[in-house]
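Appendix B, record 7
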Amino acid sequence: MEIIQQTAFTGADGIQLTTVPDKQPTATQIQLKTAYTPVLPWDWRSATGELAGLNPARPPYVLSYALTGIVTAVGQLRRTTLLGQRLLTVNFHGSAREQNLLAPSPLVLPVPDQVSLAAATTLIGGADAAVKLMQAAKIHAGMTVLVTGAAGGVGSYLVQLLHQQGATVLALSRPANRDWLTQLGANDTIDYTTDLTTQLQAAPKATVLLDTIGNTQLLNSLAAGQPQLQVWSIAQQNWQPLAATQAFHFVNGPIWPQQYRRLLDQLATGQLTAAIAATYDFHDVRQAQQAAQQPGQRGRTLLRYSH
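Structure tokens (predicted):
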């Protein structure tokens, strides 16, 4: 089988596809034929060594950690009823491989029949990060919330979940995404490519900023003149507030398995919509990473491993 490795901290130049021998599951493992993995900022930022303090992996290592797939073999101590099941799961040893061997874990989640494997793949590194941000910021009905990167893989879920929560959503994005974000639940959209001051003055006053981008200059512009703003970020660890009355918090970590199940159920019932920017064959991983980093992308870019 083929795997995608990061062979050096040199960005996309360090990516290499390698053929390794197939392995059979041990007594307690299951084998998944990989369907999709997401292309995440975690991958390309780790690839330069930027996240060395958060990601313990050192080259050479297998990219990514999230995946969906279908169970094709089980170990002697696992139930044969697992065969053929469609699963959403993680492999912290690297999921960017044609087959994944997985030990028992609470994060092995059946995907409802109504949900495509591609849609389910967007939850890890997407909707889960949105849930984590909202929990950390203690979002409740009636709050006015600014969202950076509102059209992205995390932001598009934030807009929907904030709307469900009864918050007023101010979505930062490009004008081309305005109508789409309004359909997802944004109350107003702000064009970050033009002067922000006039737009922010005309919009409802936000007390919370949920940041998915990590751009220091943008955070400074949004925080200027808003002394009560509380900033929560999944993408920036060290932003300095502009006023003593402001606060900044870096957010990182998992959500509970039952929260993933709820997100899958919401996809199944149409309460949530998965936004997929593009899907690439896994051999085109470099091209996929480059595309995913372009401004204005709607949703998550995926790698496809099987048809």
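Remarks on this record: Residues 160 and 173 are 15 Å apart (CA to CA). The chain has two domains: 2-122+274-304, 126-250.
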